[in-house]
Amino acid sequence: MFTHVCTDRTPLPLIDTTLELTTALVPVPTASVLQQLRTATAAQHRALEARLPLTHADLDFPTYQHIIQAYYGFHSPLQRSIDQFFAAQPAHSSLVQDPARHKVPALLKDLHAMGLTDAQIQDLPQCSELPVIDSVARLFGVMYVMEGATLGGQVLRRIIADRLGIDAESGGEFLDVYGRDTGRLWKTFLRQLADFDSPRHNAEVAQSACLTFECFETWLERAGVLNDA
Length: 229
Known about the structure:
By secondary structure, this protein is mostly helical. 61% of the residues lie in helices and 0% in strands. The chain has 8 helices and no strands. Helix 2 runs parallel beside helix 8 (202-223) and helix 3 (61-88) runs antiparallel to helix 8.
């Protein structure tokens, strides 16, 4: 099939064909689930980061408060969805179900610090179009986005403190929600993700992460906190 023949029926050398066949037999390393996640979400990550006004020079207190309200409107129903998954799948509760990862209490503290009452917080709109969590793979995709955002909060915390004078007691708890445990919790998550790494599931993990970014950006867009693309 790969043999080229001259007009005089003398076969051409098979060097090129043999090289192609040899190369085809060399297994191509499969990207890890973490590498696939980074590649799949890179563009969405950059786009959302560019549209969030948290790092912009004209950020003011009302805008920051609006953003925290929108974050609460996403994290609150998302945490309920995660809790429901673990309630239905108790065998998987050892994965990433760590009370230290719950971010809603920090958001509530920030909203109270910024002057909202319980009744006002209860009336805040909440996202109804969330990423589906019906498998461990999809859970890991969601958690990759949420836990990665927590790392970014370390940088944002310093920016907000410098520009608005906000610290953990005056509305900035969420940006440093893990405090000194940030590095430890991130490494724990990466170990759990690596243990789950499998060609059978990795595509689903990456798809879930992309959907999480999509849902989050759509929600922030509807909440009116994003700058124009």
